[in-house]
Specification:
By secondary structure, this protein is α/β, with parallel strands linked by helices. It has one domain (about 45-400): Aminopeptidase (3-Layer(aba) Sandwich), CATH 3.40.630. It contains 10 helices and 13 strands. The protein has helices spanning about 5-25, 85-95, 190-205, 235-245, 265-270, 295-300, 305-310, 325-350, 360-365, 390-400, and strands at about 40-45, 60-65, 70-75, 100-110, 130, 140-145, 160, 170, 210-215, 225-230, 250-255, 275-280, 355. Strands 1, 2, 3, 4, 9, 10, 11, 12 and 13 form a 9-stranded mixed β-sheet that branches. It is globular and about 80 Å long. The chain binds zinc ion. Zinc ion binds next to loops. Zinc ion (ZN) binds next to loops.
Length: about 400
Amino acid sequence: MDLEKSARATVAIAFTVSGILTWGYVQMWRDDVIVPGPGVTAVKWLSDYHPDLKGTLGDTRVFVLEGKEPGGTFLVLGGTHCDETAGFAAALVLVEHATVQKGRVIVIPQMNNSGWTNNYPQEAHPQFITIPQKPDGKGRVFRFGSRTGNSGELWPDPEVFIQYPHKQKYSGEEIRNPNRAYPGRPDGTFEENVAYGIQMMHRKEHIDMQIDLHEGPPEYPFVNGVSSHKRAADIGSAAVLEMQMADLNIGMETSPDSFRGLSNLELGDMFPHLYAFTSETVNPIQGKIRGITDEYLTVDGVDAFYDEAAKIGFLFTPWPNIGSPLKLRVGRNLQLMRSLTTALADAKGIDIVWGEMPTYKDLMANGVGHYLNEVPAGTERPGIRALPGFWRYLSKAWSS
Ligand SMILES: [Zn+2]
């Protein structure tokens, strides 16, 4: 083959490979299918509270579960960090299965929607995971995103990210971390705008209590825990005691004032009536000493390397012989939310009463998929609703 022919062949192969990869990447820009259950009384968007988010990847669905009797309001934030599967999955069980008798529960399963549009390929993270519903393993398919928002929104990251308004310095990548962007501002970064949407929701809905559902790797010191704003420490402690009485090992700490930008600290400081929490369960796919990395690691939670690490006393948390499956982590989240609403009623007289709401034991017996709905026949994942900022800019430049 002469030189020109082989050059042409190389260019053609490069185009084909990058075309296939781009197609796969762009599939992550489409929203996941969520099938609201009997408890959902309204579906809104975050842009209903902060219209600048409309037409951007910062916009996300907001599900309201309102009881027949009036009471308090509880905001549940899942999917702040989009590789922390159990927070999203617990919020999803609320939307698709739970009901509320008294008060309101507002649920955002994918708080940082932009983080769901890209993953960490260099960590070998999957792009999609399946939550099984059938004995053969078939079930609902969802994206598996990243801890930070899409780099197409803001590129390159700065060397140093200076948090607003406290001027705390973080590494540059944290500019795309929604949980350093609170309380947010309308003329700030992309993630500060998303956080501002949550702030505006607080202003409109008078939220009494909020939880931001997170996960961390098994070798981190603060997992299996709940962290509270200092004003919410009494409610948090009461909830943790109730969890321990149900034989669920859980720790509690108060959010330090020196760790700025976090949802429970900033919104708790801003709204004096709000009791704000962050929770952490154990997700082995986030760990650095994990073995084979695939969707089964975050769903089944079994890993031989962590079995070994537990044996030699390397972990801060119990690592049971079943590992840390998604059903266990979602069960813990649901039980914690139930304990928090009980504690809020006991300590402050603010009532939020669940109707149908699975317990930890239910989740361990039946799995997560049991509490998700069948997707109605003919329902497809929606097409691309918004582009990351860079692409939005290009498409505008192209069409003008
Ligand atoms: Zn997190």
